[in-house]
Amino acid sequence: MSPGHRTISYADLVIDRFRDWPLTECRADCPPGRALALRGLQIVHLHREDVAEVLLTQEVIRRLGTALTASGRVDLPAVTGWVRVHLDTVGDLFLLQSLVSLAIQANDPGAGPLRRTITTCPTYVAERAPRPSWRRHRTVTRRGWANTLA
């Protein structure tokens, strides 16, 4: 690689792609990372270079959840209103663009009062959740001893 050559991360491409949208780049409320906000409400979080989290509503997720998970590119964390999009290809960026468009429509404060509560993003929740106990137990099977997780 030449000294002047710089690789661009998918997170950088996301920020660049939404530069002309009605979104403002800012620091994510739940660090680390950057966010894109719609009139002060963060609707996209970029905690890592290869994953974007988008704030949809539970109603939108209920309607599209099956199709989103079938794509193999989107995870639906526990009932948070957020979805995670894995960013590995240009096609993933187009999928993210569609989801951000939906998020803008679903979360636009100018469209009237919000009919839902704002929830923290799944990365923030996962980092603060207590870790499960991974004690190993030995159990007897037909073929002898086996280790199992508790």
Tell me briefly what this model is.
This is Luciferase domain-containing protein. The protein is α+β, with helices and mostly antiparallel strands and 150 residues long.
Description of the structure:
This protein is of the alpha+beta class and 150 residues long. The protein has one domain (10-149). Helices cover 31% and strands 26% of the residues. The chain has helices at residues 10-17, 58-70, 90-107, 122-128, and strands at residues 24-27, 34-38, 41-46, 51-55, 74-75, 82-86, 136-141, 144-149. The strands form 2 sheets. A 6-stranded antiparallel β-sheet has the order 1-2-3-4-6-5, with helices on one face. Strands 7-8 form a two-stranded antiparallel ribbon. It is globular and about 35 Å long. The relative contact order is 0.16.
As laid out across the biggest beta sheet, the strand order is 1-2-3-4-6-5
User: What is the structural class?
Assistant: alpha+beta
Summed over residues and divided by their number, the pLDDT gives a mean of 78
Reading the helices and strands in chain order gives: HEEEEHEEHHEE
Calculate the terminal CA-CA distance, rounded to whole Å: 48 Å
Helix content: 25-40%
- What portion of the residues fall into strands of 2 or more residues? 25-35%
User: How many alpha or pi helices?
Assistant: 4
Low-confidence stretches: 113-117, 128-142, 144-150
CA radius of gyration is: 19 Å
The total number of structural domains is 1
